[in-house]
Every structure is written in C-alpha cells, then in structure tokens.
C-alpha cells in the first residue's frame, strides 16, 4: 500500500501554537481612529455621534480577548502581568459597550427622557451650523450612543450593576406637573427660537425630577455593590484553592451599617453549599487580614442566592449595635452562621421587627429566620444555642456581640435585646402580637412580664437539658407556668417547708411518657434539692401520658422538708402533694416501671400525732400486684412508714394505705369508715404475712371489728375452706405483731358458722401492772370471791359453784401468795370459815391474820389435824344434808346451814413429797433410830393428808367446803401423788402466775395456749408480779392481774370481819411416835415454835 501526503493543510500542533505569538486585537486601532474622527467632527460642528457610535460598534465586534497566562482558583485565565491586565481591561471595556442599551431604552425607565434631552442638546450646535437634517442625524445617533455608554468594567468573577429605576406610580402626579412645566417652557422656546429640538429639552430634564431620589439611591446602591464585589473578588483572587466548585457570579442588594457592616445578596450556583464551615473559614483568612469577619446565610428557599455578611472583627457597643437594624442584621446573621456551623445545621437570613426602645433608640427586636434547617427546629435553637456558655466561638448565640436572645415559647421566633430588660419601653400593640398565648395568657399586655417568664423558661430548659443529659430523655416541650402552683399555696402548716408544682408537656419526639421521666432522679441536677420529682397528671379520672408535673422543694435544699411518711402529718395541700411525691418516688425506684400515684388523703384526725396516707395507684408497663408485694419490705423502708396496706381492685390497680400506725380508737381517725377499712386491710395483710393462704390465693378475711370490754377489740374472721381453728391459733405469734397488736386471745366460736374465728386483741397489754385489792366488791354471804382483774377489765371471780376448788401455783417471786391472801381476805369478808395451814414455811404471810382465822396451823401435825377435821366436817355436813331431804349444802335451812368453809394449804406440792431417804443404823444408835421413826411417822401423816385432800377435792363441793391449794411451779406429775388423782385434778381450777412450764399447772388442753400467752407477754414487756393465767374447769384460759393485798402489818387495815368461832383441833392431833430416850418436843413438831412472827419476803415487794 502506498502512502501519500494529504493535500489538506495540517493544523499546527498545540506545542507549535504555544510557541507562536498570539495575534493582537484590532480594536485599539479602531478606537484611536474613531476618537480622532469624532474629535475632528466636533471641532467642525459636524454630527460626531454617528461616527462614535459606528466606530464603537466596529471596535466591539472586532475585539478579541487577549491570551492570559495566569489562572485563578477555578483554573480560569487571568492577567499575570501589567501588560496583560491593560489588555484585559481594554477588552472588557469595549465589550461593555451596548450592554445597558436594553434597560436604558426601556420606556419604563425614567432615564429615557433625560437621554432624549441630552440628545436634543447635542443636536443644537449642529442645527445651528448645518441645518435640520444634520441635526436630526446627530439627535438620532446620540440617543443609542448615550444608552450604549458602558459603566466601569469589573475584574473578578463577581459582577454587579446598577439597580434599574422605573416610573413610580406614587410620583405620577409630580411627574405630570414637571412634564407640563417642561412642555410649556419648550413651546415657549420653540416659538421664540423656532428650533424644533428645544421643546424636548425642558420636558426631558424636568419630567424625571421626581425620580431623582430613586436614581441617587440606585447610584448609592450600585457603588455599595461595587465596593462589596471588589472586596470579595480581591479575597477570591488571593485564594489558592477554590472555596466552591463554581464561583459566585453576581452581587446586589448591598446595605451598609454605620460601623462598617455589609450585607449583600450573592448569586451562586447552589446556595446550601455555602453553609459549609470550611467555606466560611476559607473566606475568613483574607477577611481577618483586613480586620473583618464574614459569614453566609441562606436567602429563604432561594437556592441560587446567599446572603453575605461582612463586619468588623470588633463589634460595636451592644446598645449601639442593637439600635441600628443593618448592624444588628449583619451580626445576627453571623451569630446564626456560627451556631449552625457548631451544630451541623443551616441558617437563613434574619428578619427583624422593632418592638421596644430605650432612650428613643431601638432596644428590642423580634427576630425570625428565613430559610435553613434551623428555621424549622426552634427547639434545637433553644436547646443547643442557648446553653449558658460564653466560651467564644463555642458560646451561646449573642455572646460575641453582647446581645441577649430569648427563644419565644411559641418556638417560631426569638426576642433580641440588651440588658437591663426593665428599662425597655415596649410598643405593646406590636409586641403583644408576638406573644404565645399558649405559653402564658396572664401576661397579655405586659411584655416585661412575658419576657421575664420566657427568660425563666429558658433557664429552666437549660437545667432540664443538664438534668436529662445522662439519659435518652428529651427535655420538656413546654413548661406551663400559668398553671403553676407556687409556694404561697404549697406551704406546710408549720411554715417550715414549701413546695412548687409546675405542669409540663412531654415532647412527641421519641414516644416518651410521664412514667419514663418519673424514674429519673433529678435532685442533684436541681441544686441538690430535697424534693425534685416528676409525678403523673390526672385527666378526668384517667392519666395524661403527654403531660406531667414537676414538684420541687422551696428553697431547693431544705433539711426541714420531710422525706418520710411517718414525719408527714396534716392534710393540707402541701402535705398531700409531698406524700404523693414520696410514694411515687418509691414505686419508680423499686419497680421496673414507674406508677401513677393519685393525690393522697390523710386518714388521721388533726393533731393526733400519727399519720396514715391513702392513695390510688395505677401500675404500668406490665407490673402486677405480685411485683409490688415482693417489693413491699423495701418499699416500706423507702417510704419511711411502719406499715403498708393493699386494697387490690385488679392486677394493676390498688388503693395503698401507708403510715406509722393503725390505731383502734375511732377518734384518732378522720372518718370511721377510714378506720374500718384500714383495720380490715391491716388484719387481712397480717394473715397473709403469717403465710395463711389457700392454694388458690384466698386468705383469711376480716368480717367484723368492734370494740370490746376494757381496752380490748373483738375481731371476727372468716376462714376459707381447708382452714381450722388450730391453724389460725398456731399462727397468732406471727399474726399479732404483723397486725400491730401486742396482745391477743382467741374466743370460743359463739356462732353457728364453723368457719368463723374470733379474737380479742389489744395494742398493748390490756392488764394493769398493779391491781390493789378492793374488798368493797365482797358482801357478807357472797358465794364468789374476787382475786384478779381480767384482760377485758372485768373481775376474775372464784366461784365454787362452777369451780369447786382452786390451785394457785407459780414461779418464785411471781406473787402467788397474793392470790391466796386476797382470797382469804375476801372469804373472811363474805363470812366464810377460813382455815390456813402451811407445814413447809409456817404460813408466814398469814400470821397477821391468825387471830381472824378459824384455824391456823403452821406444823405438819397441825395440818394433819386440820384436814382430818375438815374431812369429818365434810362427812357431818353430808349427813346433815341427807337428814334434811338431800340436795347439797345450799339447800339446808339457813338456821342450821353451817358457813362456807375455805381451807388453804400452801406449798402443797412439798407436802405431798414423802421422805424417801433410808438411814442405816448398824450400831443401834438411839438418835438414828429416832430419826428413822420420825421419818416414818411424818410420811404416814402426809399419806393421811393426801387421802383426806383427795376425798375433799372429790366430795366436799356439795358440803360447802372449798380447798385453796398453793404450790410452787408444779411438774407434770406432781398431783399424781394424790389418791384418785385423775378425779381429784379434775376438780381444780387453776391460777398459774409468772412465766414457766405450764405442764402440771394447767390442764393439758390449755398448755399450748398458755405457752403462746407467755411468749406474747415476754415479747411485750414481760410479766409483772401478780400476772398469770386463770383456767376454769373445762374452759380456756384468761390472762389476769391478781390483786395485791399488801404485806405484814398492812393486812391489819382490812376488817372487821364477821365473827367466827375458832375450831379446836386438839382432838384431831396425831399421837406422837414412840421414841427411844429423851427427845425434844420440837423433833416431833418439826417446826420451831418460838421467835417472832416472820413474813415471807419472797412476795414482799411488787415490781411494776
């Protein structure tokens, strides 16, 4: 294949073209020739305008842009040398010709008549020299020449032009007047001179005169725009890297402030890009060198323009700054840009409305933002831009310029002012329109009050921001100050503490509810407040989920403010609100979810010194009653109360009772119904605490609570199926303390319903610590003997008609002798025949009464004689009854009926004990032999006494003979030593004093109950002297406090008693044993008979 050279001319390569000199533009030569010809024509008074117009058109058409060797930041060619700058300037100037023709020749432009007037003036010399045709040519060419005349060319990417001025309708009348004057003057000149161009001149000069101010304003605007554009172009020219992908192209709308501020509109390719902090920082480098700062703001929704704000680095005095709208606009835009850069937002331009003055100078403005993301998120502005920080670039809005901003609670504008607020005079008609009535309707017409409240709201919001910064919760959307209840209404009765209650709305963002805020501990964030808690807010029986109430102590840290329910008495609004806070806080901290707590009510009567709060509670978040019951011990501790009572309505709804006690006295309660309900709940809860619950969850329920005799209260309960009396009795030790009682005694079921169980209870011991003997209770001939006070305050009587005989036993020092002495004194007063014996201690307690007794035998053989006599007397009386037709002692005729007989034998258990010691006598020692004989003799006496006592116990009742046996604490088998023991023991009522083993001292059926009563007494302070249990035959036991008759010579104060013949027991004395050798009589008697009377000191003193 053959290759041939192309016949077409090869284009020179780029490198070849780069080495050649560029062809010059011909327009300078054309301009030179044009100006020479124009000047020559002017000298000759020829029409010069057509020559200049034609030359400029040719030069503009032929002008070529010079090749520039420099590059700007966007890689566009720029002059790099003075020569290139001159060439570039010349090219720009010629290319600027004819550009403004369209606007200047627009009929709506008031400059057109002026152009015509100028053209007419330019045609006058030509008309005078060469006549009308040449003058018309001059006139016709001058009009487009003037319209095509360019402004000074600008360098850089940013260009600006004069603002077009159009005819103003409001100046129409003035324009017509001026035009008429000009027309009149022109016609006159025409008539005088005959020149047809003269009438045009006055009209063209005078008609636009009313628009002169607009022209001047446009001219000032143009010069301001040029200055701002030149400044920005210079800064752009000095940048190595472009701040944006495409440079700005135009600038207009420049306004300047008195302190060097510049605000202008910049034409850009994409407005949002100019909100980038990097762009601002790049412009700030050259601006700072000139002592200026710069920022950019969005121009509303316009994406092709931004607002450029340039101001001195050092702002003027705040009062001067706020007095000028332009200065304030500029610095406000700059502050907005700074905060938007800090918080990744975009900000729009400022819109200001003056609403207040100080010393006739603007001092307060309503500020709105036009454009940007911040304009739609005033919550962010309030939350992030006004945090109380003064840390320079990171500080709050206005900290760098000394202007205070308050975001209006309506969240659509802000208030700008300088302190002090009180010195500002507001234009109330204008300012009130800017109020948010939803925030406060009480401040209508008072902007000072409104802004102070807004300032407080802003400060409060900042506190909430800090308080909730550690969690995910948003601060309240609005604080409802109009519904705030202040300390003047929430002050305690004693004036020692107060509260403040403020409703708040919850932000919809995040889906939070009031219960979420309740679980936050706010006390530290609010100045270590004693009280700083969120509680729910009622809505017609239901609960708001988007509203809540904040309750804080006043002052914040007040140690006098109670923090426990037991410290909180009274029923004022302050006390009720504080109780609500304490209960709500407890549930919020101990359960998984917070609970809605209604305003509690005090159930205690005024000035009673105790407290019981009742409130309705709604559990939330799936929490149930079982969850609350599990947390009850911790909840009780946290609430600072001694008891919690629950009245469950359903799984999540409960009425809670919380207080320090639950008294049985109705006068202690606000209403009787409160007392009844609380006591019922307390008792039901106590049975639950005693673990008495059926498998299906049912428990013992309280049927009735009623006052009983003395200090006792009767409780009637219903037992669910599967429960019996023994189960409940066995849990009394747990039930009674849980129910708040120290004393309890079960009663025999006196109803036909076997599921009923009754108790007598008392909060303390119902018995007195000491009960003096009162013999006025006894009348001669009485068959019953008083000896003690029972738990219901009634007298405990020993009645042989139902209880033939009585055993009084007890521990040492328990006061058992007082029972015997009291019964003996009562029997003497009633006219009974009383015989007393004590072979063990000598009956020392009765020696002061020995001369009043029918028999007093302190020795064993005397005891033997006394019981032998008693046995024979019983036989005699039985025979006497038989001789008189049968029956019993009480049926005998009064004239022959012997008196009732009371036989008292003390230390009876020792009396029954035989001497079982065996003595060996291998040496036939007479003394040892005598001891052996005496021991056998005494044992024989004891056996006889035991036999007679047994017979008396079983047979003496019908003969009017009663045994009163005294003994130390018996063991279980001590009374079995009696002959026919089982029958004999069945004839004994029992009094057992002190705390000891009840076996042997009471019947086996009551041992368990006596043990419980002893534990109960020990737990509630012990058993004082004379305290014990009284068991009647075939019945339960009663706790009694025995009478105290006194001791020693104090017994002499009783009497006188009915006369009673002493009994001669000599015939009944046993024969002494036959002894070996000489033996003292005292060896036989076994009791020393000499010496003064000594009273047993074991029962000498009662300890209360």
Automatic annotation (TrEMBL):
<dbReference type="GO" id="GO:0005524">
    <property type="term" value="F:ATP binding"/>
</dbReference>
<dbReference type="InterPro" id="IPR002543">
    <property type="entry name" value="FtsK_dom"/>
</dbReference>
<feature type="binding site">
    <location>
        <begin position="810"/>
        <end position="817"/>
    </location>
    <ligand>
        <name>ATP</name>
    </ligand>
</feature>
<keyword id="KW-1133">Transmembrane helix</keyword>
<feature type="transmembrane region" description="Helical">
    <location>
        <begin position="35"/>
        <end position="59"/>
    </location>
</feature>
<protein>
    <recommendedName>
        <fullName>FtsK domain-containing protein</fullName>
    </recommendedName>
</protein>
<feature type="domain" description="FtsK">
    <location>
        <begin position="792"/>
        <end position="1002"/>
    </location>
</feature>
<keyword id="KW-0472">Membrane</keyword>
<keyword id="KW-0547">Nucleotide-binding</keyword>
<feature type="transmembrane region" description="Helical">
    <location>
        <begin position="172"/>
        <end position="191"/>
    </location>
</feature>
<keyword id="KW-0067">ATP-binding</keyword>
<dbReference type="Pfam" id="PF01580">
    <property type="entry name" value="FtsK_SpoIIIE"/>
</dbReference>
<feature type="region of interest" description="Disordered">
    <location>
        <begin position="1"/>
        <end position="25"/>
    </location>
</feature>
<feature type="region of interest" description="Disordered">
    <location>
        <begin position="64"/>
        <end position="89"/>
    </location>
</feature>
<feature type="compositionally biased region" description="Basic residues">
    <location>
        <begin position="1"/>
        <end position="14"/>
    </location>
</feature>
<dbReference type="GO" id="GO:0003677">
    <property type="term" value="F:DNA binding"/>
</dbReference>
<dbReference type="InterPro" id="IPR050206">
    <property type="entry name" value="FtsK/SpoIIIE/SftA"/>
</dbReference>
<dbReference type="InterPro" id="IPR027417">
    <property type="entry name" value="P-loop_NTPase"/>
</dbReference>
<keyword id="KW-0812">Transmembrane</keyword>
């Amino acid at each position: 294949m053959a290759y041939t050279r192309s016949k077409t001319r090869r284009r020179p390569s780029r490198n070849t073209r780069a080495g050649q000199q560029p062809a010059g533009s011909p327009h300078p030569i054309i301009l030179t020739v044009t100006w020479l010809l124009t000047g020559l024509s002017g000298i000759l008074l020829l029409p010069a305008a057509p020559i200049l117009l034609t030359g400029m058109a040719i030069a503009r058409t032929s002008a070529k842009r010079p090749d520039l060797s420099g590059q700007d930041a966007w890689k566009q060619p720029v002059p790099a040398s003075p020569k290139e700058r001159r060439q570039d300037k010349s090219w720009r100037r010629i290319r600027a010709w004819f550009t403004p023709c369209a606007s200047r020749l627009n009929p709506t432009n008031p400059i057109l008549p002026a152009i015509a007037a100028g053209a007419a003036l330019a045609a006058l010399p030509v008309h005078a020299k060469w006549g009308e045709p040449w003058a018309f040519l001059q006139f016709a060419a001058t009009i487009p020449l003037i319209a095509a005349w360019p402004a000074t060319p600008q360098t850089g990417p940013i260009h600006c032009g004069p603002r077009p001025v159009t005819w103003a309708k409001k100046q129409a009348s003035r324009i017509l007047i001026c035009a008429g004057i000009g027309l009149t003057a022109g016609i006159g000149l025409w008539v005088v001179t005959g020149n047809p161009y003269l009438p045009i001149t006055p009209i063209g000069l005078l008609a636009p005169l009313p628009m002169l101010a607009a022209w001047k304003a446009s001219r000032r605007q143009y010069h301001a725009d040029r200055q701002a554009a030149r400044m920005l172009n210079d800064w752009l020219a000095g940048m190595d890297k472009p701040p944006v992908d495409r440079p700005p192209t135009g600038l207009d709308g420049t306004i300047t402030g008195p302190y060097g501020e510049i605000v202008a509109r910049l034409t850009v390719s994409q407005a949002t890009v100019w909100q980038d902090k990097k762009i601002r920082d790049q412009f700030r480098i050259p601006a700072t060198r000139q002592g200026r700062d710069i920022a950019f703001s969005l121009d509303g929704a316009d994406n092709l323009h931004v607002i450029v704000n340039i101001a001195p680095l050092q702002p003027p005095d705040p009062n001067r700054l706020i007095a000028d709208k332009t200065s304030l606009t500029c610095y406000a835009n700059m502050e907005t840009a700074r905060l938007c850069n800090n918080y990744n937002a975009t900000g729009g331009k400022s819109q200001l409305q003056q609403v207040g003055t100080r010393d006739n100078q603007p001092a307060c403005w309503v500020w709105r933002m036009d454009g940007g993301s911040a304009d739609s998120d005033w919550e962010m502005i309030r939350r992030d831009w006004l945090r109380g920080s003064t840390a320079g670039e990171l500080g709050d809005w206005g900290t760098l310029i000394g202007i205070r901003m308050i975001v209006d609670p309506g969240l659509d504008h802000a208030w700008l002012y300088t302190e002090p607020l009180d010195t500002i005079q507001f234009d109330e008609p204008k300012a009130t329109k800017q109020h948010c009535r939803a925030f406060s309707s009480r401040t209508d017409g008072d902007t000072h009050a409104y802004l102070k409240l807004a300032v407080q709201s802003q400060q409060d919001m900042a506190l909430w921001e800090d308080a909730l910064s550690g969690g995910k919760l948003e601060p309240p959307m609005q604080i409802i100050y109009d519904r705030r209840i202040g300390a003047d209404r929430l002050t305690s009765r004693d004036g020692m503490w107060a509260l403040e209650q403020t409703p708040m709305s919850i932000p919809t963002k995040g889906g939070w509810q009031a219960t979420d805020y309740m679980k936050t501990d706010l006390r530290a964030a609010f100045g270590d407040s004693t009280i700083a808690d969120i509680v729910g807010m009622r809505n017609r029986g239901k609960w708001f989920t988007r509203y809540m109430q904040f309750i804080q102590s006043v002052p914040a840290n007040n140690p006098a403010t109670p923090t426990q329910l037991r410290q909180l008495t009274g029923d004022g609004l302050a006390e009720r609100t504080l109780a609500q806070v304490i209960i709500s806080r407890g549930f919020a901290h101990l359960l998984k979810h917070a609970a809605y707590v209604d305003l509690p009510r005090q159930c205690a009567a005024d000035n009673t010194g105790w407290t019981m709060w009742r409130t309705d509670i709604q559990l939330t978040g799936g929490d149930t009653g079982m969850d609350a019951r599990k947390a009850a011990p911790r909840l009780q501790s946290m609430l600072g109360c001694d008891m919690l009572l629950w009245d469950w309505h359903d799984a999540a709804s409960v009425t809670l009772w919380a207080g320090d006690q639950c008294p049985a006295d109705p006068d202690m309660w606000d209403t009787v119904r409160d007392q009844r309900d609380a006591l019922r709940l307390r008792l039901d809860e106590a049975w639950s605490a005693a673990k008495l619950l059926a498998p299906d969850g049912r428990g013992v329920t309280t049927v009735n609570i009623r006052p009983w005799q003395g200090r006792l209260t009767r409780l009637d309960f219903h037992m669910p199926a599967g429960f019996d009396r023994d189960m409940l009795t066995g849990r009394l030790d747990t039930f009674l303390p849980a129910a708040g009682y120290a004393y309890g005694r079960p009663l025999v079921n006196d109803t036909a319903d076997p599921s009923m169980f009754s108790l007598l209870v008392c909060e303390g011991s119902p018995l007195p610590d000491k009960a003096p003997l009162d013999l006025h209770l006894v009348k001669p001939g009485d068959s019953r003997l008083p000896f003690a006070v029972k738990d219901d305050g009634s007298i405990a009587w020993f009645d042989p008609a139902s209880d033939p005989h009585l055993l009084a036993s007890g521990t040492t020092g328990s006061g058992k002798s007082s029972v015997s002495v009291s019964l003996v004194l009562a029997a003497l007063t009633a006219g009974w025949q009383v015989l007393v014996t004590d072979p063990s201690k000598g009956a020392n307690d009765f020696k002061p009464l020995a001369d009043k007794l029918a028999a007093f035998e302190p020795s064993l053989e005397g005891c033997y004689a006394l019981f032998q006599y008693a046995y024979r007397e019983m036989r005699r009386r039985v025979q006497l009854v038989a001789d008189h037709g049968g029956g019993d002692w009480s049926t005998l005729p009064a004239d022959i009926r012997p008196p009732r007989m009371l036989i008292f034998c003390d230390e009876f258990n020792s009396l029954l004990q035989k001497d079982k010691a065996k003595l060996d006598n291998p040496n036939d020692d007479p003394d040892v032999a005598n001891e052996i004989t005496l021991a056998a003799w005494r044992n024989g006496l004891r056996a006889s006494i035991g036999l007679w006592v047994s017979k008396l116990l079983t047979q003496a009742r019908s003969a009017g003979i009663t045994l009163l046996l005294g003994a130390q604490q018996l063991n279980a088998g001590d009374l079995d030593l009696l002959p026919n023991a089982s029958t004999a023991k069945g004839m004994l009522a029992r009094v057992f004093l002190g705390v000891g083993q009840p076996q042997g001292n009471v019947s086996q059926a009551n041992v368990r109950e006596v043990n419980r009563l002893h534990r109960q007494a020990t737990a509630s302070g012990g058993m004082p002297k004379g305290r014990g249990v009284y068991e009647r035959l075939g019945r339960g036991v009663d706790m009694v406090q025995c009478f105290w008759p006194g001791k020693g010579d104090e017994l002499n104060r009783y009497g006188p008693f009915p006369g009673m013949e002493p009994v001669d027991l000599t015939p009944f004395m046993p024969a002494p044993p036959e002894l070996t050798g000489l033996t003292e009589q005292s060896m036989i008697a076994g009791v020393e008979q000499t010496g003064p009377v000594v009273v047993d000191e074991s029962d000498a003193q009662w300890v209360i």
